[in-house]
Amino acid sequence: MRKFGTNELREMYLSFFESKDHLRAESAPLVPQGDASLLFINSGMAPLKPYFTGEVKPPSKRMTTCQKCVRVIDIDRVGVMDRYCTFFEMLGHFSFGDYFKREAIKWTWEFFTQVVGFDPSLLYCSVYEEDDESWDIWTKEMGIDPARVIRLGKDDNFWDVGSGPCGPCSEIYFDRGAENGCGDPDCKPGCDCDRFVEIGNNVFTQFNNDGQGGYTPLAQKNIDFGMGLERLACVVQGADSVYSIDTMQSILQTVAKTAGKKYNDDKNSDISLRVITDHIRTVTMMVCDGVLPSNEGRGYVLRRLLRRAARHGRLLEIKDAFLHELCDAVIETSGKAYPELVARREHIKRVIRVEEERFEQTIDAGLKILNDIIDKLEADGGKVMSGEDTFKLYDTYGFPVVLIEEILTERGLSHDSISFDRLMNEQRERARKAHAALGDFAWDKDSGAELKDTPNTRYVGYDTLTAEAKILRILDTQTVSEGEKATLVLDTTPFYAESGGQVADTGVLENEYGVFAVSAVIKTKDGHYLHMGEITSGELSNGMTVSAKVDTERRGAVMRAHSATHLLQKALRDVLGTHIEQAGSLVEPDKLRFDFTHYSHLTEEESAAVRERVIDYIYQGLDVSVSEMPLDEARAKGALALFGEKYGSTVRVVGMGDVSVELCGGTHIDNTAKIGAFAMKGDASVAAGVRRIEAMTGKEVMRRLNSISTMIDRTAAMLKVPPDELPARIEQHLGETRTLRKAFDMMKTKQIRLETDSGLMKAHDINGLHVLTLMNDSWDADMMRMAGDNLRDKDSDVVAVVASTADDKLMFAAVCGKNAVAKGVKAGDIIKKVCAATGGSGGGRPDSAMGGGKDISKVKEALAMVDEIVKSITS
Questions:
Q1: Using CA atoms, how far apart are residues 477 and 431, in angstroms rounded to an integer?
Q2: Are the beta carbons of 616 and 587 closer than 8 angstroms?
Q3: Residues 700, 696: Cα–Cα separation, whole Å
Q4: I need a labelling partner for 120 at 20 to 30 A (CA). Which of 66, 407, 489, 640 fits?
Q5: Contact of 374 with 314, CB cutoff 8 Å
């Protein structure tokens, strides 16, 4: 058998099933589209769920895909175990009510034996123990030796998630030889040893589970075949680990070269090389599909993977940022199969570089926090850092535990590893429970069940803002009366449903019997428009005819803002570069918010250039055209697509003169001049590598200008100058304020020095140390620190405690000169006792500490303790 490459195997599989009349579909993005049950697409069938449930009609009854997948349940196992990957590809072929077991089994066998070239004697099959039909097909029709067809129980060979579609499985195993087995002469598929490797699984979804253990036959029987591309490559290439297949080796050897290491030379280095190889592959794919680093959800997973890879880079002694350069190795291996990788190369590399640089800053911040923890630990005479502190540094700051341990060892300290391990296990358990709560497939949630027999809604809102419509369904009831909220489904609607960042239309549904105020509209996956709102008068019932009327003025304002959004994206690409891609948007009446990929704050010059270009496009009076065409034709015209969006074969294209061409389902004005006015705020960061601009159009600009004009006039009147002299007068006032503040600060410093110098003169001697206390009712925390520093710097024998009740808040500061510290007198110890005497707490270094109290009436009593504290230590 020839050792085919991984990319070859992918193409061989897809081409084979194309020859069996399957539609080859592109991989869906890793980010689920319209499926809140999943964090990432994690199986070949996950993006096809609506086809399996019947919610959506598939483009073909036969489909084949190679689906990008991510699973991140046990990230910490990656690299340590050389078979586990966070990113993988699932080959699959599917039948939606078309062919069933016979063809599925026959074609699977044909692919393995005639296309890949496996020796049939090395292939074994399994069937569900009660599935006689599959047994007969394998043994009687395919002629497979019954000794190599294994019946397995429900736990192994019946796919079931509790309720919904389910059915028996038939798996195909490859025999790796007795030398890889457990030695048991009865070893066979289903054994836990490494001899028999499952390479593919046919799931025959032929039953419906009612959730109570009852199974009834499905009217539409489906085929769901899944096979991991990397696992197939392992078997074909004779690799002992997924990291040994050709594509992974290409990336891994690039990592090794960057680190100056050799794979298989050192166990710990090998783990780090595998971690970086896996993680850079995953993050490259995730960023390509629109995921950006953040502190929650998918962005948190991306950030965690990036930081874990960066940490292992440090363990390999890689000094500088390097991960963004490794993206090229991933793109080289997978760019042909996923051309979006090539198209978005620069974006991917920039996002990863920015996040890596941020992590460098985080590591520096973590070092400062760790040093503060160590200083406090040593000041308190401790030797073991708490597991809670270690966990916080690791989990919040991504600080490597190995590095924490090294630094602690250098200082003669250690950490509570048992407590740390407990916290880590608790975190893993929370993650597993959260993952389990989401579920892998969520068959149990069918949002379209209630509307399954209701005809789809016909949308006419591109051409008209009024329409006669029939109420097909009022959800959960037959009739709604005045004051009641409801959701109505119509046969026809002019109301735009919230989509693509554009808000839904509002308006009314009315007839002689009642008026329904529409406040929101959403569209279900199967094409029903849900009109949500409240009956403001009368009542409406199922089957009635109503006049559907969109709020015309509001729709016009939304259209102005949406068209301006397209012009803004064009202007940003003109001024900043073609790496600009839409990362999100919100279009409201005469307001818009646009998120885009960019890596630095816009300069004043760049912002002005963008703004001027948009205004210029508006004043050019560009005609706006809308047309539908095949996706390939739209791409050939250079139409911009929404980042990470999956489009159908026919798309809607919105053009604005020869300036802008975008795929868009939203509503627009027919000429850019009708946008009227445009005003833009500065940009802000919303995530690593993503900026946000807010802008306004039309009447909102005029309202804003009027408001600003009124404010300027009022301010000018207050300062008694004409409006055009405001900047100079304000600058004059600011200069005067700065001068006064500087003089005040100098006076404050002088006062503190006078009081502390006077205090030192009144200090009394206790065993060779100069002890004093000061009380000031007006000093804030900064002034107290300044007073303490002045006392300590002037007298190395000083032991001083300063108290303040400014703003009715009790504060203490303690300082000890270096000679006092040498005698065992520590500011941190003193401050704890003094604060405790007033019901408070505090702490700090041996030479300086601060704290707070609660009972102001006990402040004198607390200060009187200082002499006794010093005596007890120095006697």
A1: 40
A2: no
A3: 6
A4: 66
A5: no
